[in-house]
Amino acid sequence: MPSIMVDLSDRRLYLMEGGRIIRSYPVGIGRILTQTPTGTYHIINKVPYPYSRPGGRLTPYGTMWMGLSRRGYGIHGTNRPASIGQRVSKGCIRMYNADVEDLARRVPIGTMVVIRE
């Protein structure tokens, strides 16, 4: 089974299999006052979003949300691609929409997510 490792200092998410990195993605992380929590979690749900809501408003979670076992936190896309690589979120892990969609296809619910400094 694959696993995910998020390295906050590198601002990268690594898809792992058998102890090897098989994919690497750039991410946006939490601001200093709303830091991304470190620890070991699991993906508990995956929710695809249409790119825009009724009325044409863009979703804040981009095209995909993958909720973590830490309530209120997740890995998701963004409608602000310039935020990737920055400290901009309220603690969630932001990805380019194409990247989060690719990741969501590759990992099942229950996948372990390790977030480290």
TrEMBL record:
GO CC annotation terms, alphabetical: extracellular region
Residues annotated as the enzyme's active site: 76, 92
Keyword ATP-binding (UniProt): no
Any one Pfam family match given in the protein's UniProt record, by short name: YkuD
A molecular-function term among this protein's GO annotations: peptidoglycan L,D-transpeptidase activity
Associated pathway: Cell wall biogenesis; peptidoglycan biosynthesis
Domain of life the protein comes from: Bacteria
PROSITE patterns: LD_TPASE
All copies of domain L,D-TPase catalytic, residue ranges: 2-116
One BP annotation, GO: regulation of cell shape
Matches recorded under InterPro entries: LD-transpeptidase (IPR050979), LD_TPept_cat_dom (IPR005490), Transpep_catalytic_dom (IPR038063)
CDD domains given in the database record: YkuD_like (cd16913)
Keywords: Cell shape, Cell wall biogenesis/degradation, Glycosyltransferase, Hydrolase, Peptidoglycan synthesis, Transferase
Family membership noted in the UniProt record: Belongs to the YkuD family.
Name this protein carries in UniProt: L,D-transpeptidase-like protein
